[in-house]
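Page 47, continued from p. 46.
Same chain as before, 277 aa.
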Amino acid sequence: MSVNPAPEYVLGHSDRELLRLEQQAAFFSDATSDVLTRCGLARGQKVLDLGCGVGDVSSIAAELVGETGRVVGIDISPDAIALASARLKALGKAQASFKVSSIEAYDGYAGFDAVIGRFILVHNAEPRDLIRPLLAKLRPGAIVSFIEMDMSSAAAVPPLPLLGRCVGWIVEAYRRAGRNSDTGSSLYAIFRDCGLEPKLAGYTRIAGSGELAGIGFVVESLRSLTPLIVKLGVATAEEIGIETLGQRLLAEAGDGGHCVFYPRLVGAWATVGSPKG
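Result:
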């Protein structure tokens, strides 16, 4: 079963999904900070954060550009933008501001030193069609950086069957929705097809199977995806059993003696106008 791919955020925009985005951000913050540092974000720069969600990537960028810099985050969800604005205001990061806008409709690209995005390309059936128009609007020398994950790379050693089923449900839902669940490992080809010569870095979070943050990440991801999973016939709500899934994953983990490799993250960055080798 498949559906026609559409440029939409398959996880939805519920209040609980906004909370999940905050939890996810804490889970991947160190890797994100490292990629943004490596790609060249520095004090005084003006940075655009695409699909900023609740502002976590914008917050990291604001730290790097400092008070003399500026970060603008855009997202199509008014609720996400309102929360991002409130959170960064509370953190005293006045250099960050937010606007409700789609990536396609935003008209201020030319003024930025860098354009960044995390877990954005995965929600586009053809990421190249998103990147190519951006490049035409950016000034030569501007930085372009995206961070994506390879969902299918998540695994436990020795295997945890329930965790494996959870990963399988997520990957299959993205596939049937016309998305590439392993966009991270596709970044090199995507950048080169767009005329960019990327540099890349990869990260894998590894933990014992009893780590509560990791179990929460899996459960809340599935909670947001359950309507789509059911709609596409990947699994039934009863098979997922979201209200007890966390307890069942903990029970399967036992004493935490399994080593869990969470989804691999890949960061890619390039400079507009740099020749492809």
